Amino acid sequence: MVVVISAPRRRRSPPWFGAETRRALGSGLAVAGLALLAGWPYWRGHPAAAAITLVSCAAIAVVGVLLATGGRTRRTGLLFTAASVCWAANWAASWDATVWPVISPYAQANFYLALMIGVLLYPSGRLEYLVDRIWAVLACLILWGCPTALWVTSEPEWAAFRGESVWWPAPFPDLEVFQAVLQVSAALYVFLAFSFAIVLLLRLPRMSRMRRLLALPVTVAIASVGISAALTQKPIMEASIPLDDLLHVYVVQGAVVVLVPLTLLASGLRVRLAELTVAGRMLRLTAPVSVERVRDALRDVLHDPTLELWFWAPMEETYVDTAGRPVDVDPEDEDPRGPDGDGAGGDGGRWRRRVRSATGDPLAVVELGGALRDHGSLVQAALVAGGRALETARLQASVHAGLEQVRSAYRRLVRAETVERERLARDLHDGAQQRLLALGAMLGTLEAVSDDPAVKEHARTCRAELMEALAELRSLAREVQPALLVQDGLGPALEVVAERLGTRVKLDVTSRRFSREIESTLYSALCEALSYAVDRARATRVFVRVGEEDGRLVAEVGLDGTGASADPGAGPAGLSGRLRALRGTVEVGGGPGEGMTVRMDLPCE
Fold first, then answer.
1. Strand ranges for 197-276 from DSSP E
2. Is the pTM of this model over 0.70?
3. What band does 424 get if pLDDT is binned at 50, 70 and 90?
4. Within 13 Å, how many C-alpha atoms sit on residue 36's CB side?
5. Which of 145, 279, 289, 394 is deepest in the core (most CB within 10 A)?
6. Burial (0-12, 13-18, 19+ Cβ within 10 Å), 336
7. CA distance 110 to 436
8. Which of 519, 520, 536, 446 lies closest to 480, judged by CA?
């Protein structure tokens, strides 16, 4: 993303009154005019009802045209616009003449169908779940089938229409059948409304947090509209009701329906306000700037706890994570349709956005949940608002990357040292020890076959010295790389060390095996801590615990020595460097006369 600051252009109208707004208002006025014409016989005696209905039609049309300008909300907008036209055409029943009484029930059915399916499409632009598609098919069957069954089995006066010129092609009029159809239709409408509310509630847990914030108010509003429409429709599902009573119910339904466009406008304003306030929030959440703060601020602003952020390290020519570790990132993995593109996206999958500085240099790559494709403008606003913080954090990430390279080099040295220790221990055991044993056997033979007492005495003395040297060599081999450590792990190896110390040592060591460098490094550190406990701290009791905690290998050495000190400089030396090379830490606690505790932790892998 390249940040470009352009000069402000001269406008002839306010910034909020652009072409899209003018088009939406014009559409709203046109639909309101259609509703006024369609219901004029009824509006002449009911001006308040006319005002309510015209506002409702206009509001739905305005919201529909505005939503149609977005890529992913285009289908919802088109359906809402069609719904407003259908609701206006529904009032043609007030003329009580020609084909309008037959068309009116279908207009009403298409109004609710378009409105509810439009809500199911919001805000992703498609029916994502199987239950949505099943409900849409049932809605088409019920909302189109019930009006057909009503006029097929009735006379016009049974359905509230008594005009002389009414065209009502009823092939099978039967009052009893018509009343039964009315009851079944009323039950089906109630079932459809409550099932729609259930479908909306089932969708919420599967949505991302950002989408849920937008969809929840709309869900509540449309569920209320559907249920109220079904309940108000049920009392008029009777034979031979007056036309004024039927139209009065339409007025009530229209007054409730206006909640939907108002809720959608409120959701849109909420997103717009979030875009306007994102700069202040980013500034507040990233102060003082750090790599982790910038990432956490983006997670908070975009409501995406899974967001990942990788920074470009120019010296290493690669992307690194917040800890400075290199990562394999393909920065070109972006949505080719752009933030407002149409197509699949939904809540699944991941979405990567490349961020560049004002000079066009690579800055970072941010990976977000796929649902944020629906809110590309908010994502862009957050990244632009955090541009300075991202540049500062990139410098910190570059320093972390340099430190990580040093740490990696040190880790390679530790690994090489471990391998060299194993080789040296193996050479001492297989080479020098075997030669000394062979030399001892030769001296024993010489002592046995010689008749000269002086030679026998010298051979015996040399053999005794040789055995002492062999014992020292074996001790050195054990210190370099104990065979028990390689074969059986930390526990058995530390038991041998504890026996040689001559101090009461209590061991609690996990039996799990770890990598060679981790076991070798931790063994050396524990041996150094135990040596310090006996030689310098004059400890009489020592406790050693080694186990796993939250995916880390933790070792604690506690001692009661009177000479113990919590000063890191006075404690066991040389621990920190080897452990930190493997991303470990060392903490020393306690004080003179209180004993000391050394805590070490390493990654398990």
1. none
2. no
3. low
4. 12
5. 394
6. exposed
7. 100
8. 520
CA dihedral for 211, 217, 219, 222, sign (positive or negative):
negative
Helices marked H in 44-99 — which ranges? Answer: 47-68, 74-90
Tell me the HSE value of 20 on the side-chain side, using a 13 A CA sphere. Answer: 11
pLDDT at 566 over 50: no
Following DSSP, what letter does each residue of 440-482 receive, concatenated?
Answer: HHHHHHHHHH---HHHHHHHHHHHHHHHHHHHHHHHHHHHHS-
Cα–Cα distance, 385 to 279 (Å, whole number): 5
Taking each continuous run of H as one helix and of E as one strand, the counts in the chain are 19, 10
- Between residues 216 and 81, the one the model is more confident about: 81
Which tokens in the block code for residue 66? 């505005």
Which three-class secondary structure state does DSSP give residue 580? helix
The residue behind tokens 């729609």 is: 196
What lies within 8 Å, CB to CB, of 368 at 6+ separation is: 302, 304, 306, 307, 350, 351, 352, 353, 379
Residues in Cβ contact with 53 at an 8 Å cutoff, skipping those fewer than 6 apart: 35, 39, 87, 91, 250, 251, 254
Q: Which helix (H) or strand (E) holds 245?
A: helix 243-257
Residues 535-552 as b or e (16 or more Cβ within 10 Å = b): eebebeebbbebeeeeee
Give the closest residue to 443 by CA, choosing from 429, 431, 424, 460: 460
What is the per-residue pLDDT across 188-207, written as a single tens digit (0 to 9) for each? 888 888 888 888 888 777 76
For 192-217, b/e burial (b = at least 16 CB within 10 A) is: bbebbbebbeebeeebbebbbebbbb
Residue 514 confidence (pLDDT) above 60: yes
Q: How far is CA 84 from CA 78, 81, 315, in A?
A: 10, 5, 60
Using the CB atoms, write b or e for 378-417: b if 16+ within 10 Å.
bbbbbbebbbebbbbbbebbbebbeebeebeeebeebbeb
Environment class of residue 451 by beta-carbon count within 10 Å: exposed (0-12), middle (13-18) or buried (19+)?
Answer: exposed
CA angle 545, 547, 553 (to 5 degrees): 115
Specify the amino acid at residue 365: V
Per the CB < 8 A criterion, the answer to whether 93 and 247 are in contact is yes
Return the C-alpha torsion angle 234, 238, 242, 246, nearest 10.
20
Q: Between the CA of residue 169 and those of 163, 215, 308, 426, what are the distances in Å?
A: 14, 43, 64, 103
Q: From edge to edge, which strands make up the β-sheet containing 585-591?
A: 504-509, 541-549, 552-559, 595-603, 585-591
Q: Is the dihedral of CA 486, 488, 490, 496 positive or negative?
A: negative
595 strand-pairing partners? 591
Quickly count: other Cβ atoms within 10 Å of residue 587's Cβ. Answer: 13
Report how far residue 598's alpha carbon sits from residue 91's, in angstroms, rounded to the nearest whole number: 84
Max CA-CA distance within the chain? 150
